[in-house]
Each structure stands twice: as C-alpha cells, then as structure tokens.
Specification:
alpha+beta, two-stranded antiparallel ribbon
Amino acid sequence: MFPDAENVAAEASLQVKFFDCGQNFARVLCPHCSSEMDMDWWQGRMNDDSDGLGFRLDSYEAPCCAKSVNLNELIYDWAQAFGRFSWTVQNPNIGELTDAAKLELEGVAGFALVPIQQHV
C-alpha cells in the first residue's frame, strides 16, 4: 500500500500510549460543548493520567461544562489518539489516505484506526 515510503513499522504495547501529530497540533475541544480547552488544563490532565509508562484514561470534569470526559474523548485538531497499537509510515508519498485504504488497513488490523498525520 505504501511502496515509496521511507519506513513502515508496527508497534504493539501493553500500556496505552499517546500518538500525537507533532507540530500539526493546534487545539483541543470539549466533545460535549465544543469549547476550546485551556492548554494548561489539558497538560495537567495528561500529567495526572500518566503513570510514566502509559495512560489510564480516567474521567475528569471538563472545566467548560463540568461534564465527565477522558483524554481520548477530547476532539484534537489535528487528529491525535490513545491506543496500544500503531502503524507508522514515514513519508508515505501517497497524498491523503483514502477511505478505502483506511478500511483495508482496519480489516487487516481487526479494529478501527485513527489516521494521524505527524509533522516532526
């Protein structure tokens, strides 16, 4: 699927990891009220939730609307996600990942995937 990629790798972990979009990271929104989350609040919850090896994904009270939310439920602009598995494709040289290609990859993996475009 990625014949011109510089590198393709898969990684599985027992701990939940955070897969970030690097320099593409713009903001975080509340999934309940769509308010932009304060970065200090978000970073504090990232620190609270991490045990040094991974994330627990505990529930926290959103400062904007007081509803319960975990870090994975937040809306990230650009996409970011928490998980135990990743495929990394460095410089895939395919343009945008099509819906058909995503479905094919999900079929191989056996679960839903969140495509993350990381700018390093």
